[in-house]
Specification:
Layout: E1 2-5, H1 11-25, H2 32-41, H3 46-50, E2 54-59, E3 62-70, E4 96-103, H4 112-126, E5 131-137, H5 141-146, E6 150-158, E7 164-173
Parallel strand pairs: 4-5
Antiparallel strand pairs: 1-2, 2-3, 3-4, 5-7, 6-7
């Protein structure tokens, strides 16, 4: 496996990977209506690529996963998600955000997510953050728990049609 910074030319492939991950990995933990609603509240946040805090893992010549971290206030969501906040966080008092973690269904359980998460924590720590938080999906929760994250609070993301998608705010000292 190799890890590298995502670039703008990766965006079409990353969007396809995200769509495959949402439709292929959420079916066991969400209703079909919630899976469909997930496309409204999750997805590509191009600010992460512009900030150079978003990574791609390649395996067997393919993009196997992606994810990143942010020094901005937005906790979750793609470019299309309402309520985003680009304000910069203060590492002395705020938690870095782990963002937009996706693994291609063909590459799950092979260490892709853990590799990205480890790299995010190292990079955030290097910028002075001592804590990381995320909005975890129900499908991602087992990985994050295994990596030491604890639930802070459950909440719902709400689609444009009003469908509620369960999420967990999780955090960890890094």
């Amino acid at each position: 496996m190799t890890l590298r910074l995502a670039a703008s030319h990766d965006i079409p492939a990353l969007r396809r990977l995200m769509d495959r991950a949402i439709s292929g990995l959420m079916n066991d933990v969400l209703t079909p209506e919630q899976v469909q609603a997930s496309f409204d509240i999750m997805g590509m946040d191009t600010q992460l690529i512009a900030d150079e805090t978003y990574f791609v893992v390649e395996l067997e010549g393919q993009i196997a996963g992606c994810g990143g971290w942010s020094r901005r206030a937005t906790l979750f969501g793609g470019d299309q998600t309402d309520g985003r906040n680009a304000a910069l966080l203060d590492p002395a008092k705020d938690a870095a955000r782990v963002r937009a973690m996706y693994t291609d269904p063909d590459f799950v359980r092979r260490g892709v997510g853990r590799m990205i998460l480890d790299h995010c924590e190292i990079a955030a720590r290097a910028e002075g953050f001592s804590r990381a938080e995320m909005a975890a999906t129900m499908a991602g929760e087992p990985l994050y728990r295994a990596c030491g994250y604890e639930v802070i609070e459950p909440f719902d993301g709400v689609s444009k049609a009003g469908v509620r998608v369960p999420l967990l705010r999780m955090g960890k000292a890094i």
